[in-house]
Amino acid sequence: MSLKAVKLWLGACGLLALGTLTSVEAQDFNEQQVARGKYLVAVIGCGDCHTSGYFFGKPDMAHALGGSDVGFEIPQLGVFVAPNLTPDAQTGLGDWTKEEIVAPLQTGKRPDGRELAPIMPWQDLANLTREDAMAIAAYLKTLPPIKNKVPGPFAAGTRPTVPVMKIVAP
Ligand code: HEC
Fold it and tell me: Which residues line ligand 1 at a C-beta cut-off of 6 Å?
């Protein structure tokens, strides 16, 4: 092969690689995947815990998945408020990659390494197929960003600034 032919060949490979990359990225956000994610989020009921007003019987659907206003007290662990899952960069998942969103669903680990409190049902969600977990992440990325930083987590023994659901002994 002449030098020119080699260069042409390498160029074609590059284009091919670029083509594959673009189609993978496009695939990440294809309509079918986002629709599947929306369906799963609705059926699993992520919004029950992650939408304010839900535990008062009036979910604020204008701020769906924008974070709760009630904390769960887990004995010995503390109080945990379900955070904002919309793509706001400062207060939500805007800066999280799809992989970083999928990891907590499958392993319970946040990007900073902290294990989520078990009230977040990640041990159940770990049964999702990778495709379905990715579909959920893709859908969350398409939500309108809502600016809302939920308070906490509050260490056991400290005073939470939100209403709390707790187990009360008889
Ligand atoms: C029973 C209530 C509940 C349900 C249902 C629930 N979550 Fe959560 N989730 C939580 C709580 C509480 C936390 C915070 C736990 C902590 O800080 O340790 C959390 C944390 C998270 C986090 C980590 C976010 C962060 O900023 O740290 C993600 C991502 C997440 N949930 C996604 C989901 C998705 C997606 C679903 C549905 C497939 C879902 N959750 C269903 C209660 C719930």
Answer: 41, 44-46, 48-50, 72, 80, 82-83, 85, 101, 104-105, 110, 116-117, 119-121, 125, 136, 153
Ligand 1 pocket test: pick from 48, 50, 91 the residue with the most ligand atoms within 8 Å of its Cβ. 50
As a CATH number, domain 29-165 is: 1.10.760
Quick: pLDDT tens for 30-46: 899 999 999 999 999 99
Closest-lying ligand 1 atom to the alpha carbon of residue 81: 12
Q: Angle 31-44/130-142 helices, nearest 10 degrees?
A: 100
Write out the DSSP string of 88-119: -TTTSSTT--HHHHHHHHHH-B-TTSPBPPTT
Instruction: Note the pTM of the prediction, 2 decimals.
Output: 0.86
